[in-house]
């Protein structure tokens, strides 16, 4: 029998992997992909809550989440493209103009 | 039977997620991410949400991942030298992530995450798409409109950001000729 | 309400001159003179009513200024014979000095400023006289201090004048410190500041005699500062640095009289504290004798008169100390006339000779008859020659002292009278007669200066008859009313009215005559270039000339050691602890903290993300711990 815990644990594992990608990778595109992973893990837990608690709110939230994620990716990639055009790099560690 | 499928999907999702963050080539990474997202769509079906699964496939696998691949190809960064692809703060970051996992496991294991049951029983949720559609266009009509506006803004913003370069050469040409 | 106008007009005029009429000298002087003369005419009806109603009931008008639980402070006026007489002196002498100043200060660059300060001074002085409570009197007391500071330092570009002003202010501050402590003691003991209520408390015996003595002595400190008694007398001779009308105003009618007036106002307190009275009497007697001796050794005409003022003030304080409040106030009144006359006369002489040194004058009598005659009349009143005003008032003090049984103080008083006669005859003889030693062509002063002299001379001669023994009611009986109590409980220990003591009167007359003859015979000899005493008694003369070296001692020990030492310690504390440690330390700490913290702004996006995740982790641990 599947319980909510199964889904939550899956969600948390995916979340942690996504955080690891954000914190560890230098390639800015992969950082953005890791962000998508985090989004998806959250979506899983929302959908799981929605199912197990017999509430529609979680499902609706996932719909909005996906929309916002799409917008975010569009803007993020646009920024990435313009950054790459001026700086010729996708290494996050090189983008440190706003330091002391 | 359902449990078996869950474990398969979960295992594939986790493995592909690990590969997303660990492989060096961004194109490979993008493909692993597609696999992972498909597994998530399958999980949605297990959660009796075929609508979400469909949206997941259309938007994520269809639109978003194509955007990613498109960006990778256009910028030609797939084969970038990735000698030091791990960020220099890796040691403390790994520590924090492990701690995070432990705390999350503790919370889940203790069954601390619960709330009262809602009104949508299994029979209602069976008509998944219809129910969601009704809710979206009645109860959630205002946030729905806000999100659509947000999408529009994102669209315009993305175009403006990428277009920016186009004006410069024209100016230069004017000065040159 | 007219009483409030009395207070408000000089203040308004002062502000008006300072803000509006500053550039218009004529207007300033007229407005200022007008204000004080208006004040005089407001007071006049009260004065004229006084002889018919010597036991008048005090009129008190007050409104509440501060009212919080446990503390109630009023602003109010108290009109009784004591304050009426004082108001009369202040406004009358003040008016004459204002008019005289118009001539004396003519052409001075700070003309308007001078009159603004004069009006401020009159305002403050009237405030002291009218006050019905201790807090108000203290406020105006300080205002008088401020005004005197401004006036003494009128020639502020002259270092000696600036120093003298500072000295007057600081020395007064020492006395005022005691004064306010005394006010606190009284408030602690009685719970009120109002004179009438304090007197009720004391009369009802609510206050222990020890507390009363302490309060009386502390309040006397204020009088010691303001009325220049030993040991705080040092500021008064230096205050001569101000313009001469200021000297007349400060020494004759107002500032120094404020201390004596305040003692008279609180005489019910001294009546209940006999121990304090003894101190008061001895300090007064000692000051009188010491100042008279000092006057012998001076050359500057204004300084001689200044020391004579010190001596007179000593007399007044002595009178109050032996319980003769009426005598003291009587002397204050007559003294106001003849001392103002002497100062203004001296100003007239200085105006003519452009010198303060009496040994550079001589034989001025034929040149300036009006000044000389009025000056001589003033001198005779000052030494207490029959039948001038000084005779009656001085005699009352001497008989009060004699009757109180303090024969030592009585002897001091008589000796003071003798020395006063000597130096006043010396002053007159050397200045107006004797050898001609002046330079240039001295001439008589204009009428705007001589007419006030004449008016004052008339009063200096006849004012004494207010205390004429045959007259009933005479001066003493008014003050008797005031001193024996705002309430009719009868003065305990204050015997304000003294019968004319023929023995004392004849003794003092003989002594004064002797002094005059001695001074005249020594100093009217021909061909004298400087003081014979300098050759005959060089050591004594040196001692007197340097005022017993009291100023010297203060300079060396108080200023030299205490003041400079404290300055050095405070400087050390400021430089090393406050600036180096606190201020620079704070700056250093801030800078170092900033230097450390700016390292966290790495510009690395993932560093920030890492910190954020760490924060989430902490929140989740807290969450896990709570649920």
Mind explaining what this structure looks like?
The complex is a heterotrimer of chains A (100), B (177) and C (627). Chain A is an all-alpha fold. Chain A has one domain (4-90): Helix Hairpins. Helix content of chain A is 77%, strand content 0%. Chain A is built from three helices and no strands. Chain A has helices at residues 4-24, 28-52, 57-87. Chain A is elongated, with a radius of gyration of 17 Å. The termini of chain A are far apart. The mean pLDDT of chain A is 87. Chain B is built from seven helices and no strands. Chain B has helices spanning 2-22, 26-46, 50-75, 90-109, 122-126, 128-137, 141-176. Chain B is mainly alpha-helical and 177 residues long. The model of chain B is unreliable at 171-177 (pLDDT under 50). The termini of chain B are far apart. Chain C is mainly α and 627 residues long. Chain C has 25 helices and two strands. A two-stranded antiparallel ribbon of chain C has the order 1-2. At the A-C interface, helix 1 of A face helix 25 of C.
Briefly characterize the structure:
The complex is a heterotrimer of chains A (100), B (177) and C (627). With 177 residues, chain B is mostly helical.
Task: Give the arrangement of secondary structure elements.
The complex is a heterotrimer of chains A (100), B (177) and C (627).
Chain A: H1 4-24, H2 28-52, H3 57-87
Helix pairs in contact in A: 1-2, 2-3
Chain B: H1 2-22, H2 26-46, H3 50-75, H4 90-109, H5 122-126, H6 128-137, H7 141-176
Helix pairs in contact in B: 1-2, 2-3
Chain C: H1 2-19, H2 25-49, E1 59-68, E2 71-79, H3 81-104, H4 111-130, H5 134-152, H6 159-190, H7 195-203, H8 209-226, H9 235-238, H10 244-253, H11 255-265, H12 267-271, H13 274-296, H14 301-321, H15 325-353, H16 369-383, H17 389-404, H18 407-432, H19 447-462, H20 475-483, H21 502-523, H22 532-536, H23 538-545, H24 550-598, H25 605-626
Antiparallel strand pairs in C: 1-2
Features of the shown structure:
heterotrimer; A: 100 residues; Helix Hairpins; B: Four Helix Bundle (Hemerythrin (Met), subunit A); globular; disordered C terminus
């Amino acid at each position: 029998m599947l319980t909510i815990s199964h889904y939550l644990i899956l969600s948390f594992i995916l979340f942690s992997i996504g955080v690891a990608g954000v914190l560890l990778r230098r390639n800015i595109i992969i950082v953005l992909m890791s962000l998508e992973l985090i989004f998806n893990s959250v979506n899983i837990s929302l959908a799981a809550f929605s199912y197990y608690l017999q509430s529609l709110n979680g499902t609706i939230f996932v719909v909005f989440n996906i929309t916002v994620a799409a917008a975010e990716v569009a803007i993020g990639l646009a920024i990435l493209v313009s950054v790459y055009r001026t700086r010729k790099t996708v290494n996050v560690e090189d983008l440190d103009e706003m330091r002391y | 039977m359902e449990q078996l499928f869950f474990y398969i999907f979960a295992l594939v999702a986790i493995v592909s997620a690990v590969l997303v963050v660990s492989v060096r080539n961004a194109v490979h990474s993008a493909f692993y991410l597609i696999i992972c997202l498909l597994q998530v769509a399958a999980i949605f079906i297990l959660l009796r949400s075929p609508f979400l699964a469909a949206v997941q496939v259309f938007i994520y696998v269809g639109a978003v991942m194509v955007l990613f691949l498109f960006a990778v190809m256009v910028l030609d960064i797939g084969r970038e030298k990735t000698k030091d692809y791990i960020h220099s703060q890796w040691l403390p970051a790994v520590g924090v992530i492990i701690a995070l996992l432990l705390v999350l496991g503790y919370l889940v294991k203790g069954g601390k995450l619960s709330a009262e049951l809602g009104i949508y029983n299994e029979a209602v949720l069976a008509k998944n798409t219809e129910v969601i559609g009704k809710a979206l266009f009645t109860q959630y009509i205002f946030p729905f409109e806000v999100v659509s506006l947000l999408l529009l803004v994102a669209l315009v913003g993305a175009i403006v950001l990428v277009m920016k370069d186009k004006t410069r050469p024209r100016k230069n040409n004017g000065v040159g000729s | 309400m007219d009483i409030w106008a009395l207070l408000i007009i000089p203040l308004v005029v002062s502000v008006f001159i300072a803000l509006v009429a500053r550039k218009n000298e004529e207007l300033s002087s007229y407005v200022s003179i007008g204000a004080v003369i208006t004040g005089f005419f407001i007071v006049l009806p009260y004065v004229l009513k006084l002889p018919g109603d010597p036991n008048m009931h005090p009129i008190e008008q007050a409104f509440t200024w501060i009212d919080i639980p446990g503390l109630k402070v009023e602003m109010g006026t108290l009109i009784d014979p004591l304050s009426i007489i004082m108001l009369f002196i202040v406004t009358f002498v003040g008016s004459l000095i204002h008019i005289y100043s118009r001539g004396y200060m003519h052409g001075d660059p700070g003309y308007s400023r001078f009159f603004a300060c004069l009006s401020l001074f009159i305002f403050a002085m009237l405030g002291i006289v009218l006050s019905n409570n201790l807090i108000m009197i203290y406020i105006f007391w300080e205002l008088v201090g401020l005004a005197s500071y401004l006036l003494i330092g009128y020639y502020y570009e002259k270092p000696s004048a600036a120093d003298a002003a500072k000295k007057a202010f600081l020395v007064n501050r020492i006395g005022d410190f005691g004064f306010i402590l005394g006010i606190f003691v009284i408030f602690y003991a009685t719970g009120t500041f109002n004179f009438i209520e304090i007197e009720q408390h004391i009369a009802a015996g609510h206050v222990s005699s020890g507390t009363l003595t302490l309060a009386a002595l502390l309040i006397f400190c204020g009088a010691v500062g303001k009325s220049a008694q030993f040991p705080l007398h040092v500021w008064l001779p230096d205050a001569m640095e101000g313009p001469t009308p200021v000297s007349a105003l400060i020494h004759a009618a107002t500032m120094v009289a404020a201390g004596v007036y305040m003692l008279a106002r609180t005489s019910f307190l001294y009546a209940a504290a006999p121990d304090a009275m003894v101190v008061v009497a001895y300090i007064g007697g000692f000051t009188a004798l010491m100042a008279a001796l000092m006057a012998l050794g001076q050359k500057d005409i204004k300084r001689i008169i200044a020391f004579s003022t010190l001596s007179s003030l000593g007399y007044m304080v002595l009178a109050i100390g032996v319980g003769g409040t009426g005598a003291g106030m009587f002397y204050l009144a007559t003294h106001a006339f003849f001392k103002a006359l002497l100062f203004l006369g001296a100003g007239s002489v200085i105006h003519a000779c452009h010198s303060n040194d009496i040994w550079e004058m001589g034989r001025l009598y034929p040149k300036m008859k009006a000044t000389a005659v009025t000056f001589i009349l003033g001198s005779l009143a000052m030494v207490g020659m029959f039948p001038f005003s000084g005779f009656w008032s001085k005699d009352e003090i001497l008989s009060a002292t004699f009757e109180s049984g303090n024969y030592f103080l009585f002897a001091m008083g008589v000796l003071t009278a003798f020395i006063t006669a000597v130096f006043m005859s010396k002053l007159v003889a050397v200045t107006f007669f004797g050898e001609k030693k002046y330079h240039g062509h001295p001439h008589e002063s204009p009428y705007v200066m001589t007419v006030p002299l004449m008016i004052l001379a008339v009063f200096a001669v006849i004012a004494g008859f207010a205390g004429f023994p045959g007259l009933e009611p005479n001066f003493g009986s008014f003050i008797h009313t005031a001193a024996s109590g705002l309430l009719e409980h009868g003065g305990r220990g204050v015997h304000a009215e003294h019968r004319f003591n023929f023995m004392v009167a004849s003794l003092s007359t003989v002594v004064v005559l002797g002094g005059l003859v001695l001074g005249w015979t020594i100093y009217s000899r021909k061909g004298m270039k400087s003081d014979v005493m300098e050759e005959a008694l060089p050591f004594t003369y040196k001692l007197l000339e340097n005022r017993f070296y009291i100023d010297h001692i203060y300079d060396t020990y108080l200023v030299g050691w205490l003041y400079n030492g404290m300055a050095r310690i405070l400087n050390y504390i400021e430089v090393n602890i406050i600036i180096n440690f606190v201020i620079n330390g704070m700056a250093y700490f801030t800078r170092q903290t900033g230097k450390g913290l700016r390292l966290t702004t790495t510009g690395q996006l993932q560093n920030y993300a890492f910190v954020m995740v760490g924060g989430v982790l902490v929140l989740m641990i807290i969450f896990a711990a709570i649920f």
